[in-house]
## 1
Amino acid sequence: DADVTQTPRNRITKTGKRIMLECSQTKGHDRMYWYRQDPGLGLRLIYYSFDVKDINKGEISDGYSVSRQAQAKFSLSLESAIPNQTALYFCATSDLGAGWGNEQFFGPGTRLTVL
Amino acid sequence: DQQVKQNSPSLSVQEGRISILNCDYTNSMFDYFLWYKKYPAEGPTFLISISSIKDKNEDGRFTVFLNKSAKHLSLHIVPSQPGDSAVYFCSGGSEKLVFGKGTKLTVNP
């Protein structure tokens, strides 16, 4: 069984629709992250959370919101999707420890297409 | 402004030879550097890391070298195998990880 799961794996939606991407983990990690990957741009951090009561903006948070419903669940929402949010989205987790030197464990990704 | 740069989008090597993937960074406050490997249709997986207080870390066929004065790190894979064919991301950070754009490595049999 996968330690970090993302649903849905693929989604096609229309401009203006609200979309929620969900992430669950069974690793017992406190820290969770949302990234997006665009061709030629690598991985960019959208939001991150160090525990249930902690939410932080990343590099590209505009147009996105998140919810940390429990230690194991971290959801990413697009309130009104636009075409330039078409990308591959990854959730990741890491253990509380020596700062960011700890490895992050990534989910399989959600491919989102906004028409 | 890219804080982590991988200037080679792709690299092709023969099986058994050395693969060298390079990465440059601009932020001298980075405490750690991590390399990730990504196959198509999968999430990135951690490969190897190095602390900013070290200049080398080795794990089997994979070695990462850090040159702080040049703000440069490299990943060496010896010997390269066809299964190493993937996209490799360099990342660095202190409180937040910043990723490079990735280098696609192809190892030819």
Note: The mean pLDDT of chain B is 94.
## 2
Amino acid sequence: QSALTQPRSVSGSLGQSVTISCTGTSSDVGGYNCVSWYQQHPGTAPKLVIYDVSERPSGVPDRFSGSKSGNTASLLISGLQAEDESDYYCCSYAGSYTFPSVFGTGTSVTVL
Amino acid sequence: QMQLVQSGAEVKKPGASVKVSCKASGYPFTGHYIHWVRQAPGQGLEWMGWINSNSGDTKYAKMFQDRVTMTRDTSISTAYMELTRLTSEDTAVYYCARAVATGVGISFRLRRFDPWGQGALVIVSS
């Protein structure tokens, strides 16, 4: 399995929107609605912000939303806040019970 | 609330082994697999493998297959990851994460990792 491809970095001003892409193949992202997104602030553990492509766990602000088209999933952060400055990783089910998951390469979001 | 609490930071010499623990609370421990993921300094997330918390069955990523052992103790809701023959390239933060999956066989789907442990820093240095 190869890592899912994410842009190395994206940036946006306070209040604006940014979109992070996550490109895989028909064997992972494109084949299943099992894409999740994790936010990771420096020195802390990843935290789930989106699962099943577009579901938001309780407690996650509704400015976070997810979608998918073909082999590419996307995380949209609307109304950027200072606390959204973080690294973000996507993850997809990869079709195998034994080797079930593949992570993205990670994207650093900067709030200008 | 659901929580995974890991053991503390370790400093090891090359060639040594390290064993990291991951204690679960707030959910039935044997109802979910535990996965281990590591993150080298400044790098992304690297999946290492999983353990079935109920049966103890394991599966490891190929690059760790001959050096890693994952175990669990259901009496204390704790999973363990031991990595042997450490080198400087094993310097990383090691995370455990609860897997949320549905279905069996062809309908199996791993949907998300939630929660994650706080991470255990392992430094390998002479």
Note: Residues 64 and 77 of chain A are 5 Å apart (CA to CA).
